[in-house]
Design a protein that fits this description.
The complex is a heterodimer of chains A (115) and B (480). Chain A has 115 residues and is α+β, with helices and mostly antiparallel strands. Chain A has two helices and six strands. Chain A is globular, with a radius of gyration of 14 Å. The N and C termini of chain A lie far apart (41 Å). Chain B has 480 residues and is α/β, with parallel strands linked by helices. Chain B starts with 8 loop residues before the first strand and ends with a strand. In chain B, 27% of the residues lie in helices and 22% in strands. The longest helix of chain B has 19 residues. In chain B, the strands form four sheets. An eight-stranded mixed sheet of chain B has the order 6-5-4-3-2-1-22-23. In chain B, α2 packs across α4 and α3 packs antiparallel against α4. The chains are: A alpha+beta (115), B alpha/beta (480). At the A-B interface, β6 of A face loops of B. The complex binds zinc ion (ZN) (2 copies).
Chain lengths: 115, 480
């Protein structure tokens, strides 16, 4: 039995879908699938962000599971190059990873929760 | 991040910021939104080739102006009109519209080859999208002004290719000039770019060649014909990868004339010249139709001889490579211009192991394309149909630019005449663009601290430039 997650690029009118087996996909795997499905390339020159359709809240944690039958909004943005960073992102340590390469190479980012 | 700035002018590149390719810029001023160009990046395919459309709400765009038919300026237009919630009005010149139609039909066809049936369609849009959107594109004449809800804009000649336009946009008391790709050199068939009679406050200008200097046209033509002549004399084949329409016609005018002047050695089919393109036949009729928009010398030629100057005595058209009998030296103009795939790539792979053959690159080659890679003179090149196979490269590789973009001196002369106090650089790789910025700043250094201070911006994609105006004077400028 195949499961589905619907995704829509923010600028597009119509949604597309990812088929998979199971009850959900992690944010990491979903991004990876979307990148491969749409042949977006090696991830060096762009970032891919996922948002909930209603609140436009970002799925920031690669490990979060998105349940099957959900819909998400996808946003493809320019990569942030570490050399020409003007404004630092919220987490200074993440400054160098402003692109989507990890979804292509297959190494999830481990978020270190600070208490 | 996306609210239009209530008082200032906001400039925002979705593509073409610090890169050549996927030209697309947004201008917002007093609640009006103008989009300039809707291109693709020639080094990428599918969605990856698009400007960063997710970064802007396209439903807010009032008008979209297309500067010329080149793919890096126009090829994502059907996508924008059919697949997004864009519902603005679209304008381009008549010849741009005429050529755009055939060009994009070919683009859809070429990019759909090679995909297996169970794979997701790589095409950004279909033939149906193309024809459905085509009828909604409006045309504008050179030197005429349109007014759409208080946004006034006028088209001027940009040189570069047939139909290419610069747009001067009037927003209240503010004038913005967008050059698109432009050329200030009179060539064999086009006018050079015009200086609009009214000055502009903001200039959005291409920076493809940065601070580089072109050799004069005549010496480039001489070099070109001599290189080709000596190669074919030695029995070699010359591959000239070209974009099917535009600069190819200029090259054919040069070659046809040279062949006629050297009839005994080259003419009468002794050394054939081929123009391999699906669009060959069509292009002739389009170029004939719009001879009146070209320069005086070609119009005179047309009038005097009563023949189409784009019917060439020494050049034959090839629809595909199957009908090509590759027996001896020849000159082949073949698309696409950056050797990514298709006909020119097939010929490259066939001819590049042979040292007496030559690849002659005359267009601008973007980073990441095969043409750009070839200029490094690699030992091998990968086969496009079988990436595991490496093909030895022993042929000569030469570059003589006929790309019809301004060089540094031409650009700076033009910029000075526009008299804008805000200059936004687009359509250039980071390094040449950065060098141009420094050169402009030092050129205008005497204005520093004065009322007429000239500001130069080289924004990356999706980085804001916000210009504050009081009346028409600049009060403050922020951005990168
Ligand atoms: Zn162009
Ligand atoms: Zn261009």
């Amino acid at each position: 039995m195949s499961s589905v997650i619907f995704y829509r690029f923010r600028s597009q009118k119509d949604p597309s879908r990812i088929l998979f087996d199971g009850t959900g996909l992690t944010v990491f795997d979903l991004k990876r699938e979307i990148i491969f499905e749409n042949k977006l390339g090696d991830g060096l020159d762009f970032q891919l962000k996922l948002f909930t359709p209603d609140t436009e809240e970002e799925y920031e944690d690669d490990a979060q599971v998105i349940p099957r039958s959900s819909s998400v909004i996808v946003r493809r943005s320019p990569a942030i190059k570490a050399t020409n960073l003007n404004s630092r992102p919220k987490l200074g340590a993440l400054a160098a990873v402003g692109n989507a390469t990890r979804y292509v190479t297959g190494k999830p980012r481990v978020l270190q929760k600070k208490s | 991040m996306e609210q239009p700035n209530p008082t200032g002018l906001r400039f925002f590149s979705l593509g073409g910021g610090n890169e050549v390719g996927r030209s697309c810029h947004i201008l917002q001023y007093k609640g009006k939104t103008i989009m300039l160009d809707a291109g693709v990046h020639p080094a990428y395919q599918g969605l990856a080739s698009l400007p960063f459309y997710d970064e802007f709400d396209l439903s807010t765009v009032d008008i979209l102006l297309i500067s010329h038919f080149h793919l890096d300026h126009a090829a994502s237009l059907p996508y924008v009109m059919q697949r997004t919630n864009f519902n603005g009005r679209v304008f381009m010149t008549h010849p741009t519209k005429a050529i755009y139609r055939w060009l994009l039909k070919d683009f859809v066809r070429v990019t759909s080859i090679g995909g297996s049936p169970n794979e997701k369609d790589d095409n950004l849009y279909t033939d149906e999208d193309l024809s459905e959107s085509f009828d909604r594109i409006e045309t504008i004449d050179y030197h005429s002004t349109m007014d759409v809800n208080g946004i006034k804009f006028t088209a001027f000649h940009a040189g570069h290719v047939l139909g290419a336009a610069m747009f001067q946009i009037e927003l209240g008391s503010l004038r913005v000039l967008f050059t698109g790709d432009y050329s200030r050199e009179l060539d064999r068939h086009l006018n050079s770019a015009e200086i609009p009679p009214l000055a502009s406050d903001v200039l959005i200008v291409e920076s493809t060649f940065g601070t580089a200097t072109h050799e004069p046209r005549l010496s480039r033509e001489k070099k070109l014909t001599q290189l080709i002549h000596s190669t074919v004399t030695k029995g070699g084949r010359v591959l000239m990868p070209v974009f099917a329409l535009g600069r190819a016609q200029e090259l054919m005018l040069i070659l046809d004339e040279y062949w006629s002047h050297n009839e005994e050695e080259l003419g009468n089919g002794q050394v054939p010249i081929y123009y391999a393109s699906n669009l060959a036949k069509r292009s002739m009729s389009v170029f004939q139709t719009y001879v009146n928009m070209m320069n005086d010398s070609i119009r005179k030629k047309f009038r005097d001889s009563k023949t189409n100057p784009f019917i060439f005595k020494n050049i034959s058209y090839l629809k595909n490579i199957d009908s090509f009998q590759d027996f001896g030296p020849s000159v082949m103009l073949a698309a696409p211009g950056m050797l990514q795939n298709g006909l020119s790539r097939d010929l490259l792979e066939k001819w590049c192991p042979e040292p007496k053959n030559m690849v002659l690159i005359t267009g601008y080659s973007v980073e990441g394309s095969m043409a750009k890679y070839l200029m490094l003179e690699p030992e091998n090149i990968p086969s496009v149909n079988n990436p595991e196979v490496n093909i030895p490269r022993r042929c000569q590789v030469e570059e003589i630019s006929f790309a019809a973009h301004v060089d540094f001196q031409e650009n700076i002369d033009f910029i000075e005449q526009i008299r804008a106090s805000n200059i936004i650089l687009v359509h250039g790789e980071s390094n040449p663009m950065g060098r141009l910025k420094s050169a402009l700043l030092s050129n205008f250094s005497s204005t520093k601290g004065t009322e007429d201070e000239v500001h130069v911006f080289n924004p990356r994609n999706c980085a804001d430039v916000i210009l504050e105006f009081k009346g028409v004077k600049v009060a403050k400028a922020v951005g990168t």
